[in-house]
């Protein structure tokens, strides 16, 4: 089998087209990574500047009412793993910044694609990972498709089988040779990429960066090997190489070009994300009108007024020894959070359902699984964005509570106006964020990885079946 | 070749085409996907129109309720409260949001554009709108692949369908050694190829053209239909050129190659280059020459300005009253809330807008610069050209967004002009203030402006087609069996 | 060595072989004559295990290719009308590859000797096959067969398209192989070559072996007359 593999590799190497295609792929991947590196560097520099300046603006906002300070709020931006040079994932369509302020839950804004026409020109994938999955996939399938059918077409297969070698061993050897041909441009690139991400990683995060890169490349390799096996199986079933080409091209278009958009369409049909305006108005209505046994805000405020009066034995809130406006803000925020959390939980359930639908669909189109795994290992999938948003929201609530406590302490009775200064703003420490580790990403990606592995084994099974039925 | 003979050839080749199950299946699949995409686009367009209509109705309805409340107040049927008083402009106007809508473009059913959230409704109030966040709750995983709209089918999938239908138009016959027989029939090979590709052209153009036309007609209000006609004609022309370009490429390769697989691989390589690689290069060229607006820097600038104005709020207020003496409050505040919003918050919003307007506009100006460069860059790639052309005609040209920005700016100025003396000076509203509610006209763009913008990509498509066709014709004339 | 017993094969409605009995002993060259569609290639394919008979059986030195195709093929060498080799490889590289597939590792010296024995000129050994003529490719095919030390040799129109001197050389090579104890089954249209090289000749038509006769007892002209008579 090894001699067949060796010879197959030799044949592929002598075929100038393969060498050109491999070289082009390598060049494209490298160019995309260089561009990706520049974007990553620029983005990270911007993020650091943004984090520093935004916090400085928070601290330096001058004397004002603590609630107005909270309404001014601050911005935080999601950090990226070094693998984002290769796999920017959702970056173009997910803003990386969150405005943390008094009145509403943190939500991402400023998606690059909203402002930058080149972030989504509508055609063409610009990232190295997308090119590898798309073009590498096509390369693997075409490589496989032309293999057996061409030997059948030229009559070589007849003579080979007449030599007494078993079809299974012959096809197995051919596959090994094709795998080697496929790996030729990919191995140097993988080494380069691992070195790049290790270089870009912060101190102490080098192994995490290497682990994430290796996991992403590993998942992509499983995907490509599966496609190669499918290509060879199609080739073994086809009488002509043109027939095999048409079949693999159709499979590639359906699985890699059409499937992602169809999957999005289906996902949104089955589990639509609520309209942002409607979502906000539902929360607003519930805040005012209450839900279930819980009364709306006006009733809760009346109850709060009564309880404060009772607690301090007051006839009027103007006599309160503490700032009632601060207590009111605290109650209002607690109620806002309660209502928002209810709906946010539903929103998260919708996201989960969308994810489940995608996972089911990726059983039919492994490209979706390969991409999901790649996004996930690069820390650029929605789960990672959500992880960041949750941390930011926790921070937002904490500084909001601090500002409300400052109002309670700084006013008396029903008075509202007061001013606080830098020492109050400094109660909110700079936002820090610890991104989840590789283990977290692996746990999140196990369905995608399992589907890819299952596809590989399925493809190998199909290949074994094709080899068994092989006729010259 | 006479017209009658060409007609007979077309009929003959149509029969062969229809007798090939793969060809028929592909055309049916193309029709289904296109139909699905256009159906989705039509629904999306109708929904956008409906949302915009609802927003305008709500604007009028809410205002009517406020007016009714004012009448009730005057008639003594209701009492005022801390936050309820239909005679106080700060309470009535500050919370009111008036919509400025940008209706869907002429060919909106054919492209979802960058698929932003919302329905192209900009809410205008007395407050500054530059501080508004474009926050989203959409899962970006649903956006990252782009929508399954007709332009995706046309720009991406159609060339693959054309490739499969035409890659072996002559090489296949050479491979099976039928071509000498055909060549000896008396009809030149070039004409036979023309006949075969003509059938493919008619089938694909017919299917997509009919479906697109149906979508555009179904989504447009009757009075708009005539205005949309030139856009549709231009687009159908572009579609024809685009299909012709790919078929000419196929003919050109088939003129020489002896193996269908070789022709197929060559065409696939061209498709990858033009559809995948070149758009990336074009995007890089645009990014270098027309950098995207740096939104985060704008955010920091805006916040720094907010801080500065907040710190100088007394100065800002006095400057504002100095410049607008009639806006100085004629009475003291009812509450510290009214005091803050009328005397501090509102003047600051006006100054914020004055100072920040050029920066906010710059975002759209930069997008226009990007679009202009992208239209030129699209010359490298016919798929990018037809995508750009369709997006522009579907209403997603950044120029249109800039026009919407300017129209919103004008409307906000008019809206403030109408109310801010009453608001700032704390004069009571009268019934006359409630009449003639200012309502923004939908943002529109003259048809000629749209079509002039389409000239660049259309010219590119024409040039691409003519080049490919000339090359094909020269090579086919010398093609042997 | 090569035995077909009551061999029957249909392809749809077409009967390709009908009760074919055939036997080629070691050291014998058997020429199977017949028009296109007579069943010659199907017979060869049955011995190679590329086609499974619907009835009867074939045996290659006692091994049934329908049951153990690899086992049967290991005993056989095969030269088709058009020897198809990898055009990107040289004659020497193709020989090395095919010999290894047949289970035999060869040294460079052995391969040179085999190619020389097959009649290929030395300067062509390291040239790519894409530059070879049909006759040269045929010679590499012979070298591959020689390398395998097969006990049976199956030939399907081996001299079709070869010039007379190449055909002559090929015939002498077959004789040499037969002398070495190889059983040779040759499907051909070439009456003259069949008469010249074969020890026995079989005439097929419509999947039936119509006549079988020793070549030494008949002249080429008589064989031609007999053949035409059977086809009439």
Task: Describe this entry's structure for a reader.
The complex is a heterotrimer of chains A (472), B (481) and C (232). Chain A is built from 16 helices and 5 strands. With 472 residues, chain A is mainly alpha-helical. In chain A, a hairpin with a 2-residue loop joins strand 4 (290-291) and strand 5. The two termini of chain A are 19 Å apart. With 481 residues, chain B is mainly alpha-helical. Chain B has one domain (3-132, 142-477). Helix content of chain B is 72%, strand content 2%. Chain B contains 16 helices and 2 strands. In chain B, strands 1-2 form a two-stranded antiparallel ribbon. Chain B is elongated and about 100 Å long. The two termini of chain B are 20 Å apart. The model of chain B has no long low-confidence stretch (mean pLDDT 88). Chain C folds into 2 domains: 2-75 and 150-231, Rossmann fold (3-Layer(aba) Sandwich), CATH 3.40.50.300; 87-149. The radius of gyration of chain C is 17 Å and the shape is globular. Chain C is an alpha/beta fold. Classes of the chains: A mainly alpha (472), B mainly alpha (481), C alpha/beta (232). Chains A and B meet through helix 2, strand 3, helix 4, helix 5 and helix 9 of A and helix 2, helix 4, helix 9, helix 10 and helix 12 of B.
CATH superfamily of the largest domain in chain C: P-loop containing nucleotide triphosphate hydrolases
Shape estimate of chain A: elongated
Number of helices of chain C: 8
Strand order of the largest sheet of chain A: 1-2-3
Please count the helical segments of chain A: 16
Largest contact between protein chains? A-B, 88 and 80 residues
* Amount of helix of chain A: over 70%
Q: How much helix, percentage-wise, in residues of chain C?
A: 25-40%
Task: List the helices and strands of chain A in order.
Answer: HHHEEEHHHHHHHEEHHHHHH
What is the arithmetic mean of pLDDT of chain A? 89
What amount of the residues of chain C lies in strands? 25-35%
């Amino acid at each position: 089998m090894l001699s067949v593999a060796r010879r197959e590799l030799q044949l592929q190497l002598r075929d100038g087209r393969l060498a050109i295609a491999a070289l082009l792929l390598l060049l494209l991947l490298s160019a995309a990574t260089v561009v990706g590196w520049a974007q990553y560097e620029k983005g990270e520099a911007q993020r650091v500047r943004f984090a520093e300046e935004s916090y400085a603006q928070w601290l330096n906002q001058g004397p004002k009412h603590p609630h107005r300070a909270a309404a001014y709020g601050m911005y935080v931006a999601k950090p990226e793993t070094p693998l984002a040079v290769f796999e920017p994932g959702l970056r173009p369509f997910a803003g990386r910044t969150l405005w943390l302020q008094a009145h509403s839950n943190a939500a991402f804004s400023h998606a690059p694609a909203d402002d930058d026409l080149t972030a989504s020109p509508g055609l063409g994938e610009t990232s190295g990972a997308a090119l590898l999955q798309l073009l590498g996939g096509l390369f693997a399938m075409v490589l496989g498709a032309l293999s057996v059918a061409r030997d059948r077409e030229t009559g070589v297969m007849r003579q080979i089988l007449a030599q007494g070698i078993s079809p299974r061993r012959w096809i197995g050897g051919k596959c090994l040779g094709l795998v080697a041909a496929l790996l030729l441009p990919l191995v140097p690139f993988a080494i380069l990429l691992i070195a790049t991400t290790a270089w870009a990683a912060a101190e102490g995060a080098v192994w995490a960066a290497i682990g994430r890169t290796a996991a992403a490349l590993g998942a992509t390799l499983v995907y490509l090997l599966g496609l190669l096996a499918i290509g060879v199986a199609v080739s073994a079933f086809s009488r002509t190489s043109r027939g095999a080409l048409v079949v693999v091209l159709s499979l590639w278009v359906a699985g890699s070009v059409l499937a992602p958009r169809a999957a999005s369409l289906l996902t949104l049909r089955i589990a639509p994300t609520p309209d942002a305006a409607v979502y906000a108005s539902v929360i607003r209505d519930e805040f005012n009108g209450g839900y279930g046994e819980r009364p709306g805000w006006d009733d809760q405020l009346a109850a709060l007024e009564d309880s404060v009066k009772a607690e301090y034995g007051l006839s009027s809130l103007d006599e309160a020894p503490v700032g009632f406006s601060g207590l009111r803000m605290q109650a209002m925020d607690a109620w806002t959070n309660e209502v928002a959390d209810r709906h946010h939980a539903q929103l998260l359930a919708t996201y989960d359902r969308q994810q489940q639908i995608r996972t089911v669909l990726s059983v039919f189109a492994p490209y979706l699984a390969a991409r999901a795994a790649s996004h996930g290992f690069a820390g650029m999938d929605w789960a990672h964005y959500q992880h960041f948003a949750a941390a930011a929201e926790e921070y937002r609530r904490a500084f909001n509570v601090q500002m409300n406590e400052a109002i309670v302490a700084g006013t008396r009775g029903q008075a509202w106006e007061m001013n606080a200064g830098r020492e109050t703003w400094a109660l909110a420490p700079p936002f820090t964020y610890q991104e989840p580790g590789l283990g977290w990403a692996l746990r999140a990606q196990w369905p995608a990885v399992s589907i890819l592995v299952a596809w590989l084994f399925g493809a190998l099974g199909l290949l074994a079946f094709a080899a068994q039925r092989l006729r010259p | 070749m006479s017209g009658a003979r060409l007609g007979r050839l077309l009929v003959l080749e149509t029969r062969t085409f229809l007798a090939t199950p793969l060809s028929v299946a592909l055309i049916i699949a193309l029709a289904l996907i296109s139909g699905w995409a256009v159906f989705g686009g039509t629904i999306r367009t109708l929904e956008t129109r409906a949302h915009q209509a609802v927003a305008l109705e709500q604007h009028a309805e809410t205002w009517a309720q406020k007016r009714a409340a004012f009448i009730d107040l005057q008639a003594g049927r209701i009492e005022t409260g801390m936050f309820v008083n239909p005679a106080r402009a700060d309470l009535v106007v500050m919370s009111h949001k008036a919509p400025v809508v940008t209706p869907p473009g002429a060919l909106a059913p054919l492209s979802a554009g960058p698929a932003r959230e919302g329905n192209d409704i900009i809410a205008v109030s007395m407050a500054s709108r530059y501080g508004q966040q474009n926050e989203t709750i959409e899962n970006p995983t649903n956006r990252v692949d782009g929508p399954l709209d007709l332009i995706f089918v046309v720009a991406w999938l159609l060339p693959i369908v054309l490739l499969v239908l035409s890659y072996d138009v002559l090489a296949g016959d050479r491979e099976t050694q039928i071509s000498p027989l055909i060549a000896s029939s008396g009809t030149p090979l070039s004409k036979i190829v023309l006949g075969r590709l003509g059938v493919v052209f008619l089938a694909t153009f017919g299917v997509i053209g009919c479906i697109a036309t149906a979508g555009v007609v179904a989504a447009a209000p009757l009075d708009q239909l005539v205005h949309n006609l030139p856009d549709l004609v231009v687009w159908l022309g572009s579609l024809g050129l685009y299909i012709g370009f790919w078929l000419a490429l196929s003919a050109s390769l088939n003129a020489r190659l002896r193996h269908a697989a070789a022709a197929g691989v060559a065409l696939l390589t061209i498709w990858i280059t033009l559809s995948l690689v070149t758009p990336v290069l074009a995007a890089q060229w645009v990014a270098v020459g027309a950098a995207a607006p740096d939104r985060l820097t704008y955010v920091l600038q805006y916040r720094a300005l907010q801080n500065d104005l907040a710190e100088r709020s007394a100065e800002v207020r006095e400057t504002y009253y100095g410049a607008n003496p009639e806006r100085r409050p004629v009475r003291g505040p009812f509450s510290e809330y009214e005091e803050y919003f009328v005397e501090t918050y509102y003047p600051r919003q006006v100054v914020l807008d004055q100072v920040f307007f050029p920066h906010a506009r710059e975002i759209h100006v930069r997008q226009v610069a990007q679009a202009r460069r992208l239209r030129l860059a699209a010359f490298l790639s016919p798929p990018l050209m037809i995508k750009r052309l369709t997006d522009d005609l579907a209403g997603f040209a950044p120029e249109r967004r800039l026009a919407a920005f300017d129209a919103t700016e004008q409307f906000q100025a008019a809206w403030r002009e109408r109310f801010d003396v009453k608001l700032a000076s704390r004069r009571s509203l009268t019934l006359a203030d409630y009449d003639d509610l200012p309502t923004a006209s939908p943002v529109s763009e003259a048809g000629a402006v749209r079509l002039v913008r389409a000239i660049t990509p259309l010219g590119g498509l024409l040039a691409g087609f003519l080049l490919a066709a000339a090359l094909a014709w020269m090579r086919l004339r010398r093609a042997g069996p | 060595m090569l035995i077909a017993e009551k061999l029957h094969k249909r392809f749809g409605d077409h009967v390709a072989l009908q009760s074919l009995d055939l036997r080629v002993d070691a050291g014998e060259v058997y020429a199977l004559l017949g028009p296109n569609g007579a069943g010659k290639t199907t017979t060869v394919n049955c011995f190679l295990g590329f086609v499974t008979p619907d009835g009867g059986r074939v045996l290659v030195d006692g091994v049934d290719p329908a049951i153990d195709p690899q086992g049967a093929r290991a005993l056989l060498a095969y030269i088709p009308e058009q020897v198809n080799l990898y055009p990107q490889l040289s004659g020497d590289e193709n020989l090395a590859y095919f010999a290894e597939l047949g289970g035999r590792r060869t040294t460079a010296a052995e391969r040179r000797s085999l190619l020389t024995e097959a009649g290929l000129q030395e300067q062509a050994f390291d040239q790519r096959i894409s530059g070879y003529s049909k006759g040269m490719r045929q010679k590499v095919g012979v070298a591959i067969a020689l390398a395998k030390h097969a006990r049976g040799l199956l030939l399907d129109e081996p001299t079709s398209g070869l010039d007379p001197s190449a055909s002559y050389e090929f015939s002498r090579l077959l004789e040499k192989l037969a002398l070495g104890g190889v059983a040779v089954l040759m499907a051909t249209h070439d009456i003259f070559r069949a008469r010249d090289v074969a020890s026995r000749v079989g005439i097929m038509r419509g999947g039936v072996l119509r006549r079988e006769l020793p070549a030494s007892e008949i002249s080429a002209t008589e064989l031609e007359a007999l053949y035409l008579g059977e086809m009439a």
